[in-house]
Structure to design on (270 residues):
């Protein structure tokens, strides 16, 4: 991943064919989404919405790609023009690749994704090449929001936008939760000899994980039998030693998003 998911600046990256924004149609939808997001969460939606008329390879690489990697969700406003746009397809492909990496990295479920397809104009009458048809088939494998009828009448109904935003918020929260609770595992899986040293408390922790939960006596025997990281004198920590892992200033603040608000260096591999 190019950027830790929770640290990404933009909540959404708006991907659209610029010809579809005639009369401000896409802008209208984004404004309504932002308004409903504010009502639901109380926070301002941070969006990357590029309205430049001219796109060059240099501009795309320097500006668009960087913003894609710094966004949590891709809102893809689908239309025949979107399908035929090389730039839109590239944006989709980049995020689809990152989504696959995230899915493997933190194992979030299939119903959760970071691409939200929004049907702005029906695709059934599009004049598509075989490559275009394959991309259309890929978009159809995802659950999408059909705003095409509202788009034709220039009316975006709050009930549709509300459902979209609720799922968007739920997906971001779910990925943040999984990312937070699994980040230690993500850092050390595949590195059983990893040793994390806490010089402040004069403690040493192993990155070796058991494959299943254990009762206390079983865990005690498991720790005593470990020979990893060049050491053989491993043991279970005491309650006070476990407390040194937790940042007390973040327990209440992050109680809804993180099961264990770890202190550094225990929330990242050092």
């Amino acid at each position: 991943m190019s950027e830790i998911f929770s640290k990404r600046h933009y909540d959404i990256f708006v991907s659209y064919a610029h010809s579809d924004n005639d009369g401000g149609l896409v802008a209208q939808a984004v404004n309504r989404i932002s308004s409903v997001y504010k009502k639901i969460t109380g926070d301002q939606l941070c969006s990357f919405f590029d309205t430049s008329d001219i796109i060059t390879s240099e501009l795309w690489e320097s500006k668009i790609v960087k913003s894609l990697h710094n966004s949590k969700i891709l809102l893809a406003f689908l239309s025949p023009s979107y399908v035929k746009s090389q730039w839109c397809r590239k944006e989709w492909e980049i995020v689809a690749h990152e989504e696959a990496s995230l899915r493997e990295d933190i194992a979030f479920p299939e119903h959760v994704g970071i691409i939200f397809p929004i049907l702005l104009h029906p695709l059934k009458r599009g004049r598509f090449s075989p490559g275009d048809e394959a991309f259309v088939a890929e978009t159809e494998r995802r659950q999408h929001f059909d705003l095409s009828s509202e788009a034709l009448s220039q009316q975006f109904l709050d009930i549709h936008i509300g459902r979209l935003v609720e799922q968007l918020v739920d997906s971001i929260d779910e990925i943040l939760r999984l990312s937070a609770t699994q980040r230690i595992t993500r850092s050390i899986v595949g590195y059983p000899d990893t040793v994390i040293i806490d010089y402040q408390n004069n403690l040493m922790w192993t990155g070796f994980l058991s494959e299943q939960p254990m009762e206390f006596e079983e865990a005690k025997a498991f720790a005593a039998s470990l020979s990893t990281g060049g050491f053989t004198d491993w043991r279970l920590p005491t309650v006070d030693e476990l407390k040194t892992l937790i940042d007390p200033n973040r327990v209440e603040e992050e109680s809804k998003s993180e099961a264990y608000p770890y202190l550094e260096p225990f929330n990242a591999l050092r």
